[in-house]
Amino acid sequence: MVTDSPFGTWTSPITSKAITAGSVGIGSLHIDPSSGDLLWIEGRPQEGGRYVICKYDPDARISSERGAVDVSPKESNVRTRVHEYGGGAVTFGGKGSKEIYYSEFATQRLMKLVQDSPDGSEPTPVTPDGNRFRFADGVWEPSTLRLMMVREDHLEPHPKDVVNQIVAVSVDGSESMEVLATGNDFYAAPRPSPDGTKLAYITWNHPNMPWDATELRVTQLADAGAFTDETDKHDLIAGEDGDTSIIQPLWHPQTSDLYYISDQSGYWNIYRNGTSASILPLNFDFGGRAPGWQLGQQGYGFLPDGKIYATYTKDGETKLIVASVADSDGPATNIEEYGTEHGLPPQFGGIVPSASGDTLYFIGGSSSIPTSVYSWSLSQCGPAIQLASSSSLKFSDNVISVPRQVEFPTTDSEGKAKTAFGYYYPPQNKAYQCTMEKAPPLLVKAHGGPTACTSTSFNPAIQFWTSRGFAVLDVDYGGSTGYGREYRRRLRNSWGIVDIDDVCAGAQYLVKEGLADPERLCIDGGSAGGYTTLGALTFKDVFTAGCSLYGIGDLTALAGDTHKFESRYLDGLIGKDEAIYKDRSPIEHVDSLSCPVLLLQGDEDKIVPPNQAEMMFSTLKNKGIPSCIRLYKGEQHGFRKAENIEDALDSELAFFGRVYGIDVPDAVQLDIVNL
């Protein structure tokens, strides 16, 4: 029987507890060079947000459906804090070594774990104690038996005085480290050549971010050391114009040609050896969804037969390309493209090939299938086989909303007509219908970054809303990745204008299409998306309520308080004029804000410090605006603990329910001032 009930009041099996109880985060696939085993990292909300190295085990899948056994010890938390966003926390030793090296979160020391040790020995540190150093993005260099890694030196107490370098780490217990590249503000992707004589790496300086302008350099390992403009020991391969983003260098294992991704054509395409022409020229971005935020990302690679494989996204679906690069001077040939029609899931990435090269392992999913680890045969092109899932939950298609991409009119910072994109999720719960209301409430979501993007991968936090009768619009506002350089650069000097215009334009577009109730338009976003949320509520009259998750209210305070990696990010997004910072800071214009706001914040956030939320709440409270703040103890930038993920979702639903007079079943109690 179908129950006729107002939008937002529907009962759903997709509860906050169900989401955290049955879910883990999956990322960073690896093939162990000594055993050929498939490993990855899981983030576990139910274990305090701990990160664990796991190994695929078909017997474990039979017994528990997890498909994996733990490799790292129970007390370990495998996570690096380089750039605060981390990435690249795990590295393997050479063939036959059975050694795994990982960053231990509590101390940030690099630990050596010997798999299947006969004496059951515990991990041992290979870097000094004292919380001074952080490590990431490592690669084993077999000729010297050392790890080439990005290192952060936190000797100076202020986070902006961190020194970033590339070092070679000895793993013999001496705790010795040799500096291979230093002198610039940032480094990434140290990659030794196959013969061990050269080191390629990415470097950049303030005020650039890695998606703005970087350099690809190569040094002879025998001559590595301090870099200055006067030395010729670190050859510039690409990025000489100072306005090109170079990312993800990789040596070809047979030819020793140096490949990399560059946006010099207007899109992140793949190049080789400093040439001006891409080997795979396409008007699409390679390199993954949001390159640069985390270390260790790699959107392409090489098969054992020397062919290149790479992925890009087209119309919300991932495409795989496999091609020959035998001609070191020409473009790729014998190009084959694979997608859903070949058995691949709609979204996937993080590919690692088996030793034979025929089986590809990757992380993938769809809007209705939770993120999972898959294997897929390149020769057979049959359906991809799910090896392990990020979720033990199984929800009926009756409560799963399938998104569709929408393209809607908007304007740029100069008022010129443009187009922006988003994914629209209609309300979906076949146990209910609503005949008494013309259109549902709409939740618009602004992603973080802001130089990042959303996707249509299964997101239970979106289905949480749609299965209760809300519509959701997940917006890729101007400045998002995945649409080429021009689109990504729309936010230059225009953050707080373009993004706000786009989320408002998306909501108004859906109202015009009859898909959203104009009186119940709400918005949420985390981090940079929280800023867009607060800005839209302050400077526009489109939304009637909002929720900022660890969002930015005071741009001037952010510029002074944030960590090194993003300390000059605002130079490109806003500029250097202090008057503009104040003009675009929501906290400076609370008099223009008149609708309710919920603020959710971690008390240990180093990227957007908690004083941002506290100042915003104090101002809203004093002005008499309905508002509520919830501070989560022990949380940093983003919530990792199950109880806090649950409370954040439940609090937001209860908040919008109170504001809109929706009778939310079993709503949590909130202390909303001025309501």
Automatic annotation (TrEMBL):
Domain of life: Eukaryota
A single BP term in Gene Ontology: proteolysis
InterPro entries: 6-blade_b-propeller_TolB-like (IPR011042), AB_hydrolase_fold (IPR029058), Peptidase_S9_cat (IPR001375), Xaa-Pro_dipeptidyl-ppase/CocE (IPR050585)
GO molecular function: serine-type peptidase activity
Positions of transmembrane segments: none
Domain Peptidase S9 prolyl oligopeptidase catalytic: 457-660
Name by which UniProt lists this protein: Peptidase S9 prolyl oligopeptidase catalytic domain-containing protein
Organism: Ditylum brightwellii
